[in-house]
Every structure is written in structure tokens, then in C-alpha cells.
Amino acid sequence: MPLNTxxxxxxxxSFVHSVDARWLMAYAAGIGxxxxxxxxxxxxxxxxHPMFPVCLEWPAVLAAGRLPGYASSTAKERARGVHAAHDVxxxxxxxxxxxxxxxxxxxxxxxxxxxxxxxxxxxTVDEASGELITRSFNxxxxxxxxxxxxxxxxxxxxxxxxxxxxxxxxxxxLDVPGNAAHVYTECxxxxxxxxxxxxxxxxAGLPDIILHGTATMAMAVSRLVDECLGGDPTRVRRLxxxxxxxxxMPSTLTLEVTGMTDSAVFYELRxxxxxxxxxxxFIGFE
Length: 286
What we know:
The protein is an alpha+beta fold. It is built from 6 helices and 14 strands.
């Protein structure tokens, strides 16, 4: 069934999480990141990996898919949904001991060549004070699905953070083990069967289970934090990029810095076949 643009502006309930050191450590370990800022409970408060907000957002993403209008789509149509891009603004670093509430709002639905493009805004706030901690824009495409009604976009990611003022050139290899998707699923607490259920993935038209786009991005961010930000994840203020080619497992990814400014690093991540798994990747920092 077509995706009705009257959904735009509708929000889910808030989902509250108590963020503890165990979850933060598990997330980092799940992507093979041994940075002590994520793991050392004796030295300081354990801080979150910059991609960790996706863990808090997942229940709200699922709830958004149950809003009237999404819920009328068929199982086959839902299986054709893909995560096309993600953009996260971090206003305050997350650390162990925080209690956070996340809500999803349908920010836009429009028709493009691949299908129905839907943008979801995800706001995570401090439960007690209401302070905005992170705001993400999750952009997805329902392939070959039409829309009903006039295209509507109420909200969109902030403007691009600028162009590189210096060239790139740094290249690293990132190894993705065969069990990466299963480990990430459990450590992030993000369950989507295309990443761990081979029969489901094949039925959805995929060649096999694939690595989560957020896991792929997290691996790139990990390396860039270590190499470009002195290993300090609390400097990250924004990150994102577009998901393109699939990442199968096991495989080796190629991470290339394509440019830098004094407050941003730009990158591309290629899969084992040399195709861009992430296009237009960026990290904004202070």
C-alpha cells in the first residue's frame, strides 16, 4: 500500500533507558573498540561511543513503524525498507548513570526514483531536566513503494558541515569478522532479522545476512576518533553519512580520509568489493 504523507508530524511515545556502564562497554566491545574511555570503570565515568545513540533510538524506530499508515503496509513492503542515511548531532556526551528518554517523530515523506523516502527525527533528552542530549535524522527508503498525498517534509538534517580545506590520503583496513552482525545485534540490543537470520535475508532478496549500517559506521568512527581526535570521543559533536553498498562477513573494509578542516573529518568507507559502503561520511568535532 502507498505510504500516506498524513503521517508527517506524528510522534511515538518516549522510551526511557537507564544507561549503565555494562551497556556502554558492550557496545564498544561489539565493534572491537578497546578505547579505555568506553571500558575503564576505574579511571573515570565510562562514556558512550558516538554511535551509541542508535541503541537508545531503536525502540522508537520500531514504534514509528507501527504508527497508523506505516502499519498498513504489507510484510513484503516492510522487508524492502532500507536505512539510507543517518545524521546525529550530539549536544552533550552520554555517559554511564544517565537516564534518557527517546521519541521518534515522522519528519518527512516524499517520492523519489527508488521509492518512498521517509525521514524520522529522533530526540533523546535527559529524563529529569528535559535537556536535549542528541538529535538524529534516520532516512530510509521503501523500495518500489509509492506515496499517497502531497510530499511533506517538516524537518530535515542540518546543513552540511562544510567542505574540506585540506586533502585526505590516510587509508586504513578494517577487518569485519564472520560473527560481527550477531555480536553487534546483542551488544547494541538492535534486533533486525536481515542481520542475523539467513533465511529471512534471502527471502528479502539479499545475498546473505549483512552487517548493520550503524555497525559499519561505528567501526569507521572508532578508527577516526583514535587517529584524528586523539582517542577522545567526547569531542564529537556530529556524525553521519549515506549507506550505499552492503557489507558481507567476513570481509575487509577500506577507510579513506577524503579531507579535513579544523573541526571536521570527511571519509569514505569501501566494502570488500571496493564499493562504497558509506558515502559522504563525516565527523564534526570541537
